[in-house]
């Protein structure tokens, strides 16, 4: 069996969007005293683990995420490597590491991956660990430096959402501008002026209005749009996106 | 003295812009047979080395860059971690590593940093190694996986130049739109239509036209502009930059 690399791990920051809020996937970290049953540690971490000697980072990230949560075939993007000298050396973290049998180093660097998915459509498998979604505005206590990692991931996610059309994958194929605006507001944690937002979107050649309106809604049905990846790619070089 | 971490290094991709082309800083890697004097290895690498046990990545990157090139106080940004299993195991690379005394691992992961500077204003110190700028269109043979690292760095640099106003730091305080266009064309490796480029730039609230023209030029003097970081920051939240 392949051996782990004692001083290198991967952590996955899985963001889940549910049309109401932005969530993140966490795993409970619980340690009880074997004799007294007293709870020594009870907090949460990102889905992470060491890489194996025969694995590259991408492979390790997919394997770790699947093992802890059951999530499979999720697009993961590497966003940053964390190498602070004492990032796993708080008393609670040292205690946790001492209770593992794998022979971890005292100094561990970790490579962060993130993803943004529609968390209403996925099923978590628990594999003996307690795994769940938390709204990013209501986080529990996090172990190691995972709060820093989560903040950096959020910064990278927001920057990516501002500069690339990754949000459209979370919308239905035909969407309204209100749905698009809601997505941007929830992920960026901000509010846009409705008129300015519409004006901006209507300038995008790759957001294409349809001669079709919403059906079966109680309010006045809104116009539907589609996103064309093909038009986006074809018009890419004529843009330089820091402009507006 | 601090010990190195045998399986973790940092590599710096220093891009230099000289108003004519985009360059990258490389270090010669040369190994001769001790008896015959035959050249066993003669190629080039990025400025890189292992981290020390008591160093984080940022500190290591600055120390390595300074040690190999003399370059100091350069803003370095981490862009990607490289962990392919056999990234330093080509025969030439293994031979090189065997001739070093530091006790490197057979598998080494590396964290990449990049920077973009005006290379006409800096002086390189050589510290017993041959260090020089190469145009990115005329690269020599590179050791390890440094060609892959360089390509990834270039991709990240271009993406950043498209989405953030990093280019202005390379221009004089007061610049013409032709200078700005030249910078974008050289770094992105593309050509822009002059009229479209001007139109785009004139929409940017943070590129501010002056009531002032170039002086001492032979051609018709062009209008001068300044970049306002303050205006850029203040108008940031009202933009979402993937739009145009």
C-alpha geometry of chain A = elongated
Give me the strand/helix succession of chain A: EEEEHEHEEHHHEEH
The helix content of chain A is: 25-40%
Give the C-level CATH assignment of the largest domain in chain A: Alpha Beta
The major beta sheet of chain A can be summarized as: 7 strands, mixed
Count of spatially separate domains of chain A = 2
Number of H- or I-type helical stretches of chain A: 6
Explain what this protein looks like in three dimensions.
Chain A is an alpha+beta fold and 244 residues long. Chain A has two domains: 4-163, Nucleoside Triphosphate Pyrophosphohydrolase; 167-238, Winged helix-like DNA-binding domain superfamily/Winged helix DNA-binding domain (Arc Repressor Mutant, subunit A). Chain A is 27% helix and 29% strand. The first copy, chain A, has six helices and nine strands, in the order ββββαβαββαααββα. In chain A, strands 1, 2, 3, 4, 5, 6 and 7 form a seven-stranded mixed sheet that branches. Chain A starts with a strand and ends in a 10-residue tail after the last helix. Chains A and B meet through β1, β5, α3 and α5 of A and β1, β5, α3 and α5 of B.
């Amino acid at each position: 069996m392949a051996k782990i690399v004692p001083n290198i791990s991967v952590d996955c920051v899985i963001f889940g969007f549910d049309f109401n809020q932005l969530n993140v996937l966490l795993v409970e970290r619980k340690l009880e005293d074997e004799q007294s049953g007293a709870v020594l540690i009870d907090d949460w971490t990102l889905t992470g683990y060491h890489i194996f000697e025969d694995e590259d980072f991408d492979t390790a990230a997919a394997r770790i995420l699947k093992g802890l949560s059951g999530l499979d075939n999720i697009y993961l993007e590497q966003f940053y490597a964390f190498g602070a000298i004492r990032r796993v050396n708080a008393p609670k973290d040292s205690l946790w590491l001492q209770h593992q049998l794998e022979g971890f180093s005292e100094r561990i660097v970790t490579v962060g991956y993130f993803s943004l998915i529609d968390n209403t459509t996925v099923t978590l498998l628990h594999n003996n660990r307690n795994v769940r979604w938390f709204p990013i505005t209501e986080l529990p206590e996090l172990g190691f430096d995972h709060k820093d990692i989560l903040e950096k991931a959020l910064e990278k996610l927001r920057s990516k959402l501002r500069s690339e059309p990754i949000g459209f994958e979370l919308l239905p194929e035909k969407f309204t501008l209100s749905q698009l605006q809601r997505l941007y507001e929830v992920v960026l944690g901000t509010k846009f002026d409705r008129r300015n937002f519409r004006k901006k979107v209507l300038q995008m050649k790759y957001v294409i209005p349809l001669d079709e309106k919403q059906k079966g809604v109680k309010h006045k049905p809104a116009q539907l749009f589609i996103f064309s990846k093909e038009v986006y790619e074809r018009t890419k070089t004529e843009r330089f996106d820091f402009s507006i």
